[in-house]
């Protein structure tokens, strides 16, 4: 057991730091006059500032409040520094440095490193530049239709609800046709932390991003550094240039790009992707044919993951049989020759799916959670020491209502007993 706080900080550092020993790829990146490579305008910066959420400052100690109080002359100087960075593809070290704060997860053993969730503090100034770059990359992806319609990750007008609704629709359709329906949810180990930077640059180049912007991203990915802050003790600074940077505005979009060409795999099953969750399913009247097609699809996706240095986790993946006829699956489906555990009910994107799509398990879960909140609300609404009714309503809307509203689109035809709950 480590009792010295400095040693503990360095131990966290060894756990979180991931270094890429590959050389920067020699990809031909021609200069071009695309809009994504043009100098940023003052309007773009103002939009980025207005959209930036207030967060703790990074290593440079510059807060969003400080930026909001800058005079126009200073804002123009900030804009010039952003354009200089894009033009030269050079990035100040403070902009790629992250301070990592380990926070204990609920009900976990504090003596285990895996019990802590790393929270990154990064430069607010860097986040503004990232946000401007993200807006341009999103516009480019819209114009060039880069993403498949079944790719629902962190994209305007797409959400986890799209994934859930499509999955529900296809399950119900198969059951009405009296077909078998098998779903596999594939798990990728530490997905964001294992993105291969050189592979990401290659994929960005493939879909059309090039010039100054791509060179900037290349440097952004390769020069990251981190240090741990643990009980006001700082660890040493080390390189952390493997995977997409945690806490960065661009990271979810980078991961979406990295996963985009999974839809180019030719197979006979259906595929949905949300973040690092891969939903693979198939239906049909013939069990053996359906299972055979699923296994072939799983094999092809596993090969794709291996090619792009993503590690699948068969033991954390799940298989659910949604068929009306409760038959035993003739053959165990496998990922990398390891069987996928079959479950009767599972939480998928926060919603608990059951084999008959009655939502009974999820409604019971919400009911139990609701009673816990109800007791807290009763305490807050005490006539003697309780809060005002309008404040109470704000608390309910901010903390409770979203839990019950999420996924409500899935429950239009609940069974009467379930609906009463």
Automatic annotation (TrEMBL):
Give the Pfam families listed for this entry.
RVT_1
Q: Which domain of life is it from?
A: Eukaryota
Occurrences of domain Reverse transcriptase (ranges)? 84-364
Upper lineage = Eukaryota, Metazoa, Ecdysozoa, Arthropoda, Chelicerata
- Per the UniProt record, the source organism is Trichonephila clavipes (Golden silk orbweaver)
Q: Could you confirm whether the keyword Transferase appears in this record?
A: yes
Keywords, A to Z, come to: Nucleotidyltransferase, RNA-directed DNA polymerase, Transferase
Query: Which InterPro entries has this protein been placed in?
Result: DNA/RNA_pol_sf, Rev_trsase/Diguanyl_cyclase, RT_dom
Under the GO molecular function aspect, what terms does this record hold? RNA-directed DNA polymerase activity
State the protein's name. Probable RNA-directed DNA polymerase from transposon BS
Q: Encoded by which gene? A: RTase
